[in-house]
TrEMBL record:
InterPro entries: LD-transpeptidase (IPR050979), LD_TPept_cat_dom (IPR005490), Peptidoglycan-bd-like (IPR002477), PGBD-like_sf (IPR036365), PGBDSf (IPR036366), Transpep_catalytic_dom (IPR038063). Keywords: Cell shape, Cell wall biogenesis/degradation, Lipoprotein, Peptidoglycan synthesis, Signal, Transferase. Residues 1-20 form the signal peptide. It comes from the Bacteria. The keyword Zinc-finger does not apply. The active site is at H219 (proton donor/acceptor), C236 (nucleophile). Residues 149-261 form the L,D-TPase catalytic domain. This is Lipoprotein-anchoring transpeptidase ErfK/SrfK.
Length: 263
């Protein structure tokens, strides 16, 4: 269709240009409707008009968390993805909701989708929005471990806890890097996994490695199993219980949270 429009426009321009050339050469030309015909645009159908996005992929903040909590209520989103960030899983949940309501599956939240979502859910409670941090041995874990799936790693107690929706599923001893090769603290995610990894830098075995920050990973350490806290890693989080980390490796998925902190 676009090619047809362009061809008609060019036909009109060429005809008009020919008349102008004749007049410029001093030739008398009489333009009649038989000589030059006006060529109107021919447009078939209508251009789609999309509703304005209220929240979309990449949006962050408390408003996103509230929407995610409503989607969790409808069991369209797993609680682990309630994280203040409008990402792939939130987008997928929004599309599922839109499909269920006969709304065009835009994948973002327009005002109509938001209104319908509010209509069929209740206002999220404070506990739904911010579940209390798990308590282990009378001590609260980092609040970032309260939702979703997290490897909650406490440098103070030298413990790694595998937490799912606020419930501690596994707990194991860990050790960290030395002063010059300190294990980084902060909020990360598992970027990739390698069951039989060998360090290209130190040429040491790092089985059941779950990388979360550059070359730093949670992995089994035979040195930690043999020497305990007399040694240190080059920045990784060492685990000495081989049986436990085998199970943990299979449970943890790429994208799961890794929280390294001091209690």
């Amino acid at each position: 269709m676009r090619g047809l429009i362009i061809r008609k426009l060019l036909t009109t321009m060429v005809a008009g240009g020919a008349i102008a050339a004749l007049l410029g050469a001093g030739t008398t030309a009489t333009a009649t409707t038989a000589d030059v015909r006006a060529t109107p645009f021919e447009i078939s159908g209508e251009l789609p008009i999309y509703p304005k996005a209220v929240l979309k992929n990449g949006s962050t903040g408390a408003s996103v968390r509230t929407v995610e909590a409503r989607l969790v209520q409808l069991k369209l989103l797993e609680k682990r993805y309630q994280d203040d960030s409008f990402g792939t899983m939130t987008r997928s949940a929004v599309k599922k909701f839109q499909k269920s309501k006969g709304i065009p599956q835009l994948g973002y939240l327009d005002q109509n989708t938001l209104d319908q979502l509010v209509r069929v859910t209740h206002e999220p409670t404070q506990t739904e929005l911010y579940p209390p941090a798990p308590v282990v041995d009378g001590k609260k874990l980092d609040p970032r471990c309260a939702t979703g799936v997290a490897l909650c790693i406490d440098k103070s107690t030298r413990q790694l806890r595998y937490v799912v929706d606020g419930v501690v599923k596994m707990q194991m001893d860990v050790r960290f890097g030395a002063v010059k090769t300190a294990t980084r603290e902060g909020s990360f995610t598992v970027g990739w996994k390698s069951r039989y990894h060998v360090s290209t830098l130190y040429h040491s075995k790092m089985p059941y490695a779950m990388f979360f920050s550059g070359g730093q990973a949670v992995h089994y350490s035979s040195d930690f199993a043999a020497r305990g806290y007399n040694g240190a890693s080059h920045g990784c989080v060492n685990v000495r219980d081989l049986a436990k980390i085998k199970v943990l490796f299979d449970e943890v998925q790429v994208g799961d949270k890794v929280i390294v902190y001091r209690s």
